[in-house]
Amino acid sequence: MTARFINSETPVKEVALKSDLRFLETREVSMIDEALGNLGEFGEVRLIIHKGRLRYLVTQRSFDALKWTPGKLA
Asked: I want to staple 20 with a disulfide (CB 3.0 to 4.6 A). Which of 27, 41, 52, 74 is the partner?
């Protein structure tokens, strides 16, 4: 199984998934979509799969230090 990821560095990146996950529920897709929408210009969303089910969604925000202005990290 592969997943396709899009970021600012490379147009499309394919990654092999090492799990038994086959389907996402509608609420899980909504949660992933919301997390992606809140990342801003940089960041990543990681999906942690446990026993074939989505268990955790981990987000990490990154900021461009060259574009930083006081009060913009919140």
From this structure: 52
